[in-house]
Amino acid sequence: MIRTPLLTCAALALCAPLLAPEPAAGQGIRAEDVVTAELRPGWRTGSGTQMAALHIELAPDWMTYWRKPGIAGIAPRFDWSGSRNLAAAQVHWPRPRIFDQQGYRSIGYDGTLVLPLEITPQADGPISARLSVAIGVCREICIPLTLEVEAEMPDMDVADPMIEAALARQPVDAEAGEVTDHACEISAGEDALEVAASIEMPALDGEEIAVFEYGDSRVAMSESVTRREGDRLFARSTARTMGGAPSALDRSDLRITVLGDTSAVEIEGCPRGR
């Protein structure tokens, strides 16, 4: 089921420039013509978790967002209320794409999205999962939607090929991405902390974009400026809170994802340069 809540930019506290409050409000767009969704039950892993997935089909030319959506995007929000025998759920994000939305960089997916969800049960036995996920879908305009999906997840060990393929499309870690050295210099700006990263790694295919994230959601990392010089990638971002510059950044809470056209590398933590 899909709900189209009466949300405004102020209510979402996002102020995305392309956000439209209601798909039917003068647009003639029906949510069911834009996106369909289901919860794939998946299988029970060797560690006892359930590898399920949110399966979304988007209409042609529509896209939705990654966990770090870009300045014009809407980050997905997950609510598992109403589920039974569910202790926790971890999202395994496949590699996203870079989109240009009227001059703004957005990060997300189009076409078919299979988003793996690794569920930890409270106890042995079947899981009854009920998920409400708030997303944004965009073409010329952006629409906030709430997808409501549910599934019974019996304790079975037969893998789902669609979920396996999505797991294989996750960014690789620093070791697999052949990152041989990386460091960050952090300096105080006028109303932000400036973060400058230097990463030694092989070039990815196409244009490379570095995406900075920080573990504390109160700290916003800006869109980066990325350039390459030989074997080194250089990227700069700024860190801000609602009150201005944060007092400090925990380097272990920094995450940098380098995106290419068909590959990506995820780097956890960013130490000082030697």
Keywords:
274 residues; 20 strands; 7-stranded antiparallel beta sheet; Immunoglobulin-like; single chain; 5-stranded antiparallel beta sheet; mainly beta; 6% helix; 48% strand
Structure notes:
This protein is mainly beta. It folds into 2 domains: 2-168, Thiol:disulfide interchange protein DsbD, N-terminal domain (Immunoglobulin-like, Sandwich); 172-268, Immunoglobulin-like (Sandwich), CATH 2.60.40. The chain is built from 3 helices and 20 strands. It has helices at 9-12, 31-34, 161-168, and strands at residues 2-3, 35-44, 50-58, 63-70, 77-79, 88-91, 97-101, 104-110, 112-120, 127-138, 142-153, 172-173, 181-188, 193-200, 209-214, 220-221, 225-229, 232-240, 254-259, 264-268. The strands form 4 sheets. Strands 1, 4, 5, 7, 8, 10 and 11 form a 7-stranded antiparallel beta sheet that branches. Strands 13, 14, 16, 17 and 18 form a 5-stranded antiparallel beta sheet that branches. A hairpin with a 5-residue loop joins strand 2 (35-44) and strand 3. It is globular, with a radius of gyration of 20 Å.
List the helices and strands and how they pair.
Layout: E1 2-3, H1 9-12, H2 31-34, E2 35-44, E3 50-58, E4 63-70, E5 77-79, E6 88-91, E7 97-101, E8 104-110, E9 112-120, E10 127-138, E11 142-153, H3 161-168, E12 172-173, E13 181-188, E14 193-200, E15 209-214, E16 220-221, E17 225-229, E18 232-240, E19 254-259, E20 264-268
Parallel strand pairs: 12-20
Antiparallel strand pairs: 1-11, 2-3, 3-9, 4-8, 4-10, 5-10, 6-9, 7-8, 10-11, 13-14, 14-18, 15-19, 16-18, 17-18, 19-20
